[in-house]
Amino acid sequence: MDKTLMNADPHAEIREEVRKLCSRFPGEYWRELDARRGYPTEFVQALTEAGYLGALIPEEYGGAGLGLSAAAAILEEVQAQGCNGAACHAQMYIMGTILRHGSKEQKDKYLPGIASGELRLQAFGVTEPTSGTDTTALRTTARREGDKWIVNGQKIWTSRAEHSDLMLLLARTTPRDQVKKKTEGLSTFIVDMRTVLGKGLTIRPIRTMMNHNSCEVFFDNMEVPAENLVGQEGKGFRYILDGMNAERLLIASECIGDAKWFIEKAVNYAKERVLFGRPIGQNQGVQFPIAKSYSQMRAAEAIVHKGLEKFEAGLPCGEEANMGKMLAAEASWAAGEACVQTHGGFGFAEEYDVERKFRETRLYQVAPISTNLILSYLGEHVLGMPRSY
Ligand SMILES: Cc1cc2nc3c(=O)[nH]c(=O)nc-3n(C[C@H](O)[C@H](O)[C@H](O)COP(=O)(O)OP(=O)(O)OC[C@H]3O[C@@H](n4cnc5c(N)ncnc54)[C@H](O)[C@@H]3O)c2cc1C
């Protein structure tokens, strides 16, 4: 890609190390897991041992204490090497809620284990089947009873729930008709799933078009100790919102990595495949969609870098985080489309990995936030138009 910029990249060394690690997990590894919807335990273990999943945890809690741009470089590189960070990316950022809003006891109790990988906090229970994007309409409730909270309800799309020890849960603690603003009365909890699985907690995997280990989760009088409430009761929605810019910038970086993988794969194939006596990449009809997706990727990358810069400087970065996520997800899709088309029939053959990555990257126009909601954010908060919902 851009060699001048790569030389100036402050994370060039991390990227090189991530590349080496990823080379131990080639296409065959992912294909085999994809076929049986398996979890990449060895890959997650390798990332954990290298300290990458604890990148954002401060050193005093045993993490690497790196900035968001380093975490973004790690995830981008994972995707650019054809691997899939979706299996564990949330281990990097969900803990941010505990770090920013948790008590000293909670930080001391959980963060060192999350940093070492001994504890997995990579399940995030927000979305519900009936409320979807309309988060404040969620129906899961938590009722205080003595030194416990009693949780009832259901979540959907709780990714990695079967491969996580802890879940960060958003539940309503004051009914919606008893709060002034619908964003109030929601609270955030740390659920130790090991203690309640089969005792109030049921997890059911959902088979999806790509290997994502996502689940439905049911709570039936599930007990959560009172001390597992994060921060103040009723303020949970704000705590969740607080972590969203970081999440968006990280997911956007993964999309940029995907786009780079597709572009490299398409370019190589376009140069090698000879038809009518010349490489297919000599035809502008083949070249142009690849070149176009490259320019889309570079534009998205610039916005994401701007967002990371602002985030690390402590400046508001909602605009860049949202635009970056949307543009990067669109760029990776455009690059995927160009890559499939360049490969002709082989784009559909599993052994080329193109179809797998194509399925995997489609998600990011929907989750963790769909494109329409990003456009609504820009329309309302950046451009000052009336709120649409
Ligand atoms: C594989 C996968 C993994 C996921 N992992 C997690 C997870 O770990 N934890 C978690 O909590 N959630 C997770 N999600 C949920 C994800 O965040 C939601 O799917 C996403 O936010 C969209 O919500 P929804 O599916 O309910 O769609 P809906 O909210 O039903 O929306 C459907 C469509 O309508 C559009 N729409 C809705 N309202 C408006 C409006 N006002 N204006 C314009 N358009 C609108 C949306 O953009 C969307 O295109 C995951 C989802 C998937 C598919």
- Ions and ligands: flavin-adenine dinucleotide
Percent helix: 40-55%
Count of alpha/pi helices: 15
CATH top level of the largest domain?
Mainly Alpha
| Tally of strands | 10
Which band does the percent of strand residues land in? 5-15%
Backbone CA Rg: 21 Å
Shape: globular
Distance between the termini: 41 Å
Helix/strand/pairing category: alpha+beta
The second-level CATH architecture of the largest domain is Up-down Bundle
Helix and strand layout, with pairings?
Elements: H1 3-8, H2 12-22, H3 27-36, H4 41-49, H5 68-80, H6 89-93, H7 96-101, H8 104-116, E1 121-125, E2 141-145, E3 148-156, E4 166-172, E5 186-192, H9 193-196, E6 201-205, E7 215-225, E8 229-230, H10 236-242, H11 244-272, E9 274-275, E10 278-279, H12 284-312, H13 318-343, H14 354-362, H15 371-382
Parallel strand pairs: 1-4
Antiparallel strand pairs: 2-3, 3-7, 4-5, 5-8, 6-7, 9-10
Bound molecules: flavin-adenine dinucleotide (FAD).
Flavin-adenine dinucleotide (FAD) is lined by residues 124-127, 132-133, 157-159, 208, 212, 214, 363, 366-370, 372-373, 376, 388-389.
